[in-house]
Amino acid sequence: DAGITQSPRYKITETGRQVTLMCHQTWSHSYMFWYRQDLGHGLRLIYYSAAADITDKGEVPDGYVVSRSKTENFPLTLESATRSQTSVYFCASSERSALYEQYFGPGTRLTVT
Amino acid sequence: QKEVEQNSGPLSVPEGAIASLNCTYSDRGSQSFFWYRQYSGKSPELIMFIYSNGDKEDGRFTAQLNKASQYVSLLIRDSQPSDSATYLCAVNGDNDMRFGAGTRLTVKP
After folding, report:
1. Which residue, among A101, A103, A108, would best test binding to B if mutated, counting the most B CBs under 10 Å from its CB?
2. A59 touching B, CB under 8 A?
3. Of the candidates B38, B27, B10, the residue with the CA atom closest to the CA atom of residue B107
4. Which of A21, A24, A111, B97 gets the highest tally of CB atoms within 10 A of its CB?
């Protein structure tokens, strides 16, 4: 049982480039989430999805785009990467809503030069 | 802004002692409370969740919730060096989960 996986695990990209971070879960959880984690800020929600084709903004959505055509996948795209988007990105999933526990993927460390 | 506050630490305790981690939250409507452990360079790992006022015990861990005071804590009994990590408190919002910045715990042998 793979659980929740993210790819790539590490990525270096240049300012202005588009980059997509992938998230895949095998639990058939309805809810999926994208967070970024930065020193001094903790985990901040970027976007979440309650089901396939249903997405909504979190606390820090600017500069990011998400889609969810299949329940198991929730890719996060940085349309034009900026240095301020250098961070560690975590995907998480939950069987039900934010009232219930979330399980995290291993993370993607993204560096924008 | 719905806030979750934690003392950033570091909190240092000797091996075998009780470690006490505290968290306050601002949204009185919150119903679900979680503690995650995060080792350096790793992802957050769920330790416990609590929904009702009072104590909830799981092995060496006890979560305590006081909704009137908007306070949740985590006690780790018989602390081990392997418990050294950052502990994140999380509280549900309307459609999301808000995290504190975490408390770094060091257990010294």
Report:
1. A101
2. yes
3. B10
4. B97
8 Å CB contact between B86 and B8: no
Mean confidence (pLDDT) of chain A: 94
Q: Which of B4, B1, B40 is nearest to A60 (CA)?
A: B1
- Predicted local confidence at residue B94, as pLDDT: 78
What was the pLDDT predicted at A42? Answer: 84
What residues have CB less than 8 Å from B104, skipping those under 6 apart? Answer: B8, B9, B10, B11, B85, B86, B87
Instruction: Classify residue A85 by its DSSP letter.
Output: G
B40-58 pLDDT, tens per residue?
999 999 999 999 999 999 9
Dist CA A85 CA A88 (whole Å): 9
